[in-house]
Each structure stands twice: as structure tokens, then as C-alpha cells.
Amino acid sequence: MVLSTETEHLTVIMNDPVFSPEHGWDAVLCINFTSVHPNIPHDDACIADEGCHRFIRHPSYAIYRLATVFKAETLRAKLDCGEIRSHDPVSETLFERLRAGLFVSTFVSEKIKRFVRNCAPGLMHCSLQETDRKS
């Protein structure tokens, strides 16, 4: 599922809800995108070109340092009340690059790495080569 918040940043839900013993509830990993700005450093682990998704209108990047584990129930409630909106899914290629970036970015927190390792190990199996992560 792909969401946007009141700040209009595209957020990708990376997994189906899964019980997280560390959190004590069903959880999903969310990673959002923001625009690349000239002369401002950014994480280049996953760059999304303008138009690669209907919502992405400028060259953008995944903000792995802000990746968050959300309580699935809370996310559903925010979706139901209109606080966040659902969008078309990202392409399989962009999803794979986003997933691969989890293991390339130096900005992914230990907490997020632990969630992936312990609760969403399917995210650890990437099909793209390191050199294919930008396009």
C-alpha cells in the first residue's frame, strides 16, 4: 500500500502487518520519499525519478533515516478517518530498489534493521543487483 500524509510525502508500506514482539502489536514498516534539492546532501540509496509513480512529480529519494515501524491498527484508523490517503502501488521495480536500499543506506537505524530481521525477513531477499538501484 502507498500512502500520503498531510505533508504530501509519498509513504510506502513495505510489508503486510506482522506481530512484532519488540512492539507488542501488529506492525508495518513505512518508508517515505521527499524531493531532492540541489546542493542539499541526501541519501542516494534509492532515488525515484519524476514520473516513476503518479505521485512523484520531482526527483525524490527514500528517507531511510525516518523509516518507521507503525502499529497497523493505528495506520488503518488514520486511513479510515481521512488523515492519510491511499495511492496506487509503486512499481515492482521501485519497490525492489526501495527494499534493496534498506541494506545499502547508512541511515537505516538498528531498530529498523532488527524489525526486518526478526519480523519481516522477506524484505531481506532482494532481486536487484547493487548497480541497478538507480534508474
In short:
The protein has three helices and eight strands, in the order E-E-E-E-E-E-E-H-E-H-H.
How are the SSEs placed, and which strands pair?
Elements: E1 2-4, E2 10-13, E3 18-20, E4 25-35, E5 47-48, E6 60-62, E7 68-71, H1 72-80, E8 85-87, H2 92-101, H3 110-119
Antiparallel strand pairs: 1-2, 1-8, 2-4, 3-4, 4-6, 4-7, 5-6
Protein model, in words:
Residues 127-135 have low confidence and may be disordered. The protein starts with a strand and ends in a 16-residue tail after the last helix. Strand 1 and strand 2 form a beta hairpin. The protein is of the alpha+beta class and 135 residues long. It has one domain (2-132). The chain is built from three helices and eight strands. The radius of gyration is 14 Å and the shape is globular. Strands 1, 2, 3, 4, 5, 6, 7 and 8 form an eight-stranded antiparallel β-sheet that branches.
Task: Give the key terms.
single chain, alpha+beta, 21% helix
Oligomer category: single chain
SS-based class: alpha+beta
Mass-distribution shape:
globular
Order of helices and strands: EEEEEEEHEHH
Q: Estimate the helix proportion, in percent.
A: 10-25%
Number of strands: 8
Main β-sheet, in a few words? Answer: 8 strands, antiparallel
Total domain units? 1
- Which residues form runs of ≥5 with pLDDT under 50? 127-135
The helix count comes to 3
